[in-house]
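Ticket #4471: structure export looks truncated?
Reporter: QA, pipeline team
Priority: medium

Steps to reproduce: submit the single chain below to the structure queue and open the exported record.
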Amino acid sequence: MIRTLLALVLISLLRADEHPLTAEYREIMNAGLDDAIQKYGELIASDPKSVESYSMRGDALFKRGQFAKAVADYEKMVELDEKLDAGHWRRGIAYFYAGQYAKAARQFEVYHSFDDVDRENGIWRYFSQAKASGLDKARVGLLKYVKDDREPFPALYQLFEGKITPEKILEQVKAAKISDDDRTTRLFYAHLYIGLNSAVENRPEEALKYLREAVANKWAPDGGFGPSYMWHVGRVHYEELARPKKK
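Actual output as written to the record:
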């Protein structure tokens, strides 16, 4: 009995830096992204005003961790079509990962005027402010929301306000009277943003644990454009944290 319990504990404590995706899966995925970068680069060379080509190449570059290049393509999109400026949340995330935190915060502030319901945007503005100006200022400057939003984002927003713990958020998701599919969806976003928050607050081991769960989520990679993009966000952040540090 004791040995069985010990084995279960050891299984639950698998190293958070053990990638949940197989090496073969990652190799195929990265090869596809590299092909996309080349393909859309060739299309841009033949049609330098193709907003769609810049969008697709920018996405592939971001997913390959080439953040500055992704920023350049996203900025080119706005240069070609200024109507994309306010709603270009992908550019805000790329700014964040390129270390351009003030620009990232500004992008999410502008997006708030475009959509004042989506707390996911407010979360990214908070992360950007935290990196640009520190956690205290970011908490004071949290965007205000009065309308309902999809779960678990209201609860996640309370996490940044210091009103709830990660454990309580996950308990709520697991106890909610919803379908298994909805639970999987909510768990993806809960693990993703709890993990990202842990990273922003400089707790890398904790961040790895939660981000690993987000990357292992079965719904997100094929859940549509937004969920898939955010799954890649979690994946690239996870891989950055799990990468052995140079001595």
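Status: closed, not a bug. The export was complete when the record was re-opened. Leaving a note from the reviewer for reference: Residues 1-14 have pLDDT under 50 and may be disordered.
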